From TrEMBL:
Organism lineage string: Bacteria, Bacillati, Actinomycetota, Actinomycetes, Kitasatosporales
Biased composition (Low complexity): 47-56
CDD domains with a match to the protein in the record: HATPase_RsbW-like
Residue ranges occupied by any PPM-type phosphatase domain in the UniProt entry: 365-579
Source organism, top-level taxon: Bacteria
Region (Disordered): 1-152
Record key words, sorted: Hydrolase
Protein name listed in UniProt: Serine/threonine-protein phosphatase
InterPro entries: Bact_Sigma-Reg, GAF-like_dom_sf, HATPase_C_sf, HATPase_dom, PPM-type-like_dom_sf, PPM-type_phosphatase-like_dom
Length: 706
């Protein structure tokens, strides 16, 4: 501290005796009292008044002397060398300040404490500017230099957070428009590349910009508000006249400005020409228009035009920094939204491709289905459903659920569904299908866990065979409105390994409705599985009490209504089957021994059945096709063959034998004696096929009814 005082002040720093021996340092030698002697009472009075709070503050009107215009020191005291800081008049140095700290005759007093000043209030940080005031680089008349900068940072932070919140492309652009209008500008036009490049894709040439969104201050007849007049920047027809698409010339001014990346005022000829090429309508120029290119991670993906109306202050140079920040965050957000949209599209297509596009409509049963993902932002899951036609007009109904909600879960689901279809084609019993499915899951990995229910419906026998692997039990709605939770063995989930599965055979009466579903329909954070199953049963009973049997499609919608607002914790797969069955009068069934006369007997039996059904018009075609198929079966069969006719919406004929080899169609030569049977079937039948069974095969064909 001695560096700022005179040498006399540092020497006379203590006792009264030493102060008395230094009259020349602080007083005149001609007998006039020293400065210290004359002003000590005044200093004491000032200290008393300061301690009591009576002295006027430096910035208050009426403060003594010339202290009112002296700003306070940021450290809490007053500036050194001023009257306010030292209590001295003009010409008094720091040494005199030190001497006046003591009395003439008394002991040495403590150095004077700085005059207590009231705590300074922090500078108020302005929020977003009102609608009538843009974000400016300079503050008001009484604003400090930090206030506009703080407000500017706050605005940019809030705007970028709003822009970054969106995941969808429209949300990103809307966030930019809502952040800019009317706080920063009166109107904004956002142009994006069409089509937008994704990731490392090479953009399509030529460069075309499409107007994505236009926002401006709407017209308001009442302009006497606190926010001032809210008038459009230009008349509405001119705003709406902005070009919808702009094809950028590679050698034009717009391409040159876009390559420069930085936002620019429309005050140069090049930028004015670029703006005119982009919007193709009359807009303000100069510092009332900013053209900001939108550059993503690798390339320019669009442009934004910011405009201000004539009755509002023009943009300032520092506003270009704000425009650059907003443009950068918007471009990165657009890149993010495009990538996210592509990934969501791929995931959705993967999920949809692994689910059946449409359900088959086999004979004797009607089907309907629903699939709901856990969330719109995560459409990939492991739930699936399927309906597989089987020989003998039977149908396999399958619903499964792979643990997890990821691409891996969806991939495992696709593998398991393919395995189920392959096993069903072998016509294995339901418990055998689950056993082999469990083996396949173990081959895929140790953590490949899933639940599955597999049911086979026979419309002729009106029976249902069900096997379960850790899945919620099916629910049946009978024709009289009664609901029932089917009692099926629970079984272990798929992937456990070494656990046998059991099947149970149950009646499936006509007009009954079977519901197969995943646990996402009945289980949530607010209820357990069995409470959800009971709720599902009650909803089915309520629907059945109104109309029974209810239509399948509305029934599926009614079932999904049991879900509350917070019950969507998991994917939901729902499969509904209405059992119509096939009446015994529409079925003709025979066992035939495999000998050379069997083909002739089969023709006679078929003709009788067609006469009974009044289908004599089909007799010739059916006899020819049955003769060819039965002849082929007799050639390879070692046990009795089966012949069955089914009359539904079509006439179906099925011939079964114990030979496992499936027949294939050949093109016989002119000299060949064999190989024309299946060719005739292919040409005359509406549909035909061959299915391998666990003990043989079935060859079938269908003809339309006259």
């Amino acid at each position: 501290m001695c560096r700022r005082r005179s040498s006399s002040s540092c020497t006379a720093g203590g006792s009264p005796e030493r102060l008395r021996r230094l009259p020349a340092a602080h007083g005149r030698t001609d007998g006039t009292p020293s400065v210290t002697e004359h002003r000590a009472p005044r200093r004491a009075a000032e200290e008393i008044s300061a301690s009591s709070g009576a002295a006027a503050r430096p910035h208050e009107p009426g403060a003594s002397g010339g202290d009112a215009g002296v700003p306070a020191d940021p450290r809490g005291g007053s500036r050194p060398g001023s009257r306010t800081a030292a209590g001295a008049g003009p010409g008094e140095g720091p040494g005199e300040h030190r001497v006046r700290a003591t009395t003439q005759d008394g002991p040495a007093a403590r150095p004077p404490r700085p005059r207590e000043q009231p705590p300074r209030e922090p500078a108020s940080v302005p929020g977003p500017a009102p609608a009538s005031q843009p974000v400016r680089a300079s503050g008001g008349a009484h604003a400090g230099p930090a206030e506009p900068e703080t407000g500017r940072l706050r605005y940019v932070g809030a705007a970028t957070r709003r822009i970054a919140r969106g995941l969808d492309l429209d949300e990103i652009v809307l966030g930019l428009c809502r952040s800019v209008v009317p706080t920063f500008a009166d109107a904004i036009l956002v142009y994006l590349r069409d089509p937008l490049p994704v990731g490392d894709e090479r953009p399509v040439e030529p460069l075309v910009l499409r107007l994505r969104r236009t926002d401006r201050i709407p017209e308001d007849a009442d302009t006497e508000g606190t926010l001032g007049p809210r008038l459009p920047l230009v008349p509405a027809p001119e705003v709406s006249a902005a070009a919808e698409t702009t094809r950028v010339r590679m050698d034009g001014p717009l391409a040159e400005v876009l390559r420069g990346v930085r936002p620019l005022f429309a005050e140069t000829e090049q930028v004015e020409q670029a703006l005119a090429e982009l919007v193709d309508c009359e807009v303000p120029t100069g510092r009332r228009a900013v053209l900001a290119p939108l550059r993503g991670r690798r390339r320019v993906i669009g442009a934004a035009v910011l405009l201000r109306r004539p009755d509002r202050p023009a943009f300032e140079p520092d506003d270009l920094l704000i425009a650059a920040q907003l443009a950068t965050h918007t471009a990165l957000g657009v890149d993010k939204a495009v990538l996210y949209g592509r990934e969501a599209y791929i995931a959705d297509q993967l999920q949809r491709a692994m689910l059946p596009d449409s359900l088959p409509q086999p004979t004797g049963v009607r089907l309907a289905s629903r699939y709901l993902p856990a969330a719109e932002t995560a459409r990939v899951g492991g739930d699936w459903y399927d309906a597989i036609p089987l020989p003998g007009s039977r149908v396999a109904l399958v619903v499964g659920d792979v643990m997890g909600h990821s691409m891996q879960s969806a991939a495992i689901m696709g593998q398991l569904r393919t395995t189920v279809q392959t096993l069903a084609g072998l016509d294995l019993p339901p418990q055998e299908v689950l056993y082999h499915l469990d083996e396949q899951a173990q081959r895929l990995g140790h953590d490949r866990m899933a639940t599955c229910v597999y049911a086979v419906y026979d419309p002729i026998a009106h029976r249902l065979v069900v096997a379960n692997a850790g899945h919620p039990p099916p629910v049946m709605l009978h024709a009289n409105g009664r609901t029932e939770v089917l009692k099926v063995p629970e079984g272990a989930p798929i992937g456990v390994g070494g656990v046998p599965f059991e099947a149970v055979e149950l009646p499936a009466p006509a007009d009954a409705t079977l519901l197969l579903y995943t646990d996402g329909l009945v289980e949530s954070r607010t209820r357990d599985v069995w409470s959800g199953i009971e709720r599902l049963r009650e909803r089915l009973g309520a629907v059945g009490s109104i109309v029974c049997p209810p239509p399948l499609e509305p029934l599926c919608d009614e079932v999904l209504d049991i879900l509350g607002p917070g019950d969507r914790d998991d994917d939901i797969a729902l499969l509904a089957a209405r059992f119509d069955g096939i009446a015994p009068s529409d079925v003709a069934y025979w066992f035939l021994e495999p000998h050379p006369q069997t083909a002739g007997r089969a023709r006679r039996l078929v003709r009788r059945a067609l006469r009974r059904w009044d289908l004599d018009d089909l007799a010739d075609s059916v006899e020819l096709l049955v003769s060819e198929v039965v002849t082929n079966a007799v050639r390879y069969a070692g046990r009795p063959i089966t012949l069955r006719l089914l009359r539904t919406d079509v006439l179906r004929c099925e011939v079964g034998d114990d030979a496992p080899q499936l027949p294939r169609m050949r093109h016989a030569g002119t000299q060949d004696e064999n190989g024309r049977g299946l060719f005739l079937v292919h040409r005359l039948a509406q549909r035909w096929g061959a299915t391998r069974l666990s003990a043989g095969k079935v060859v079938w064909f269908e003809l339309p009814l006259p």
